[in-house]
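yo, Dihydroxyacetone kinase subunit DhaK is done. seq:
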Amino acid sequence: MNRIINHPDYVVEDAIQGYVKAHPSIFATTENPRVLKRPQAPISGKVGVVTGGGSGHEPAFLGYLGENMLDAVAIGEIFSSPTAGAFLDAFKAADAGAGVACLYGNYAGDNMNVKMAMKKAAAAGITVKTVVANDDVASAPADEKARRRGVAGEILMWKVGAAAAAQGYDLDGVIGVAQKAIDNCRSIGVGLSSCTIPAVGKPNFHIETGTMEIGIGHHGEPGIEVVPTQSAKEMAVTMLNFVLEQQTDTAHPDVVVLVSGLGATPVMELYIYYAEIEKILSEKGIRIHRNYVGNYFTSLEMMGVTLTVMKLDDELKKLIDLPAQSPGLTQAE
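structure:
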């Protein structure tokens, strides 16, 4: 293992320290070292927007704190859920009396710890409602959607939910539109190599050179199929076939496309891949209203790419277009 670290057991603490030092106008520490918030949070009259998840996916999750983005985040160990205490402290950091929207991914540890934190928050007089992301089409059949994992579609859910909160939506309004955002998202990933948790010191799964795993999860969860590595054009066809076959509503031809590397993918290759995605969607009469191409939701140093397509209506289009500033996502008008 060849890494830029001090000690494999303290990479999360050291990384948090770096984020705070690099972005002092965006991050504020709290009494809980595994909870960060915006310096302005809590904001009077505004619904607090919170997420949380395991480390190793940077810039997710902490990298999406910022203006018109998240208010507080609970930070877990690498590939592990934050504790219930961290979620509770994030709720407290974000709550100004208008309630808290907790928008997170569908993983067993997160589900358990969020529920525990919500009970304690209720006892403390904080109203928390949730949306659980389940956009990964490869993780369960369409008729078992509740079992699907949350992946990069979470970023678009956070963007929309946080924009709604910034625009003055009440808690039910934020929850409703965040749910619509993730319901309109479909994602899938392809992995070309494994990744290593520093404290473990060896790859946590294996992909043979010259092959790729379709539908692999962000923690190396098994995908649908292992096949010989395809060209960027062939990958685009393969992945869009999975995503589009479950986007049956053609009344709204505008979409958002998010292409994220998994940590070790050259950015140049992400753009090669995006060009093929754009070409196919254009041929199908689907308009890309906005695109995001880069490292948005990674898995340490895994090689590969994820594709997320979110169909838009007028409300989602307005919210996705709201300017935002965070280390992970910044956009102007």
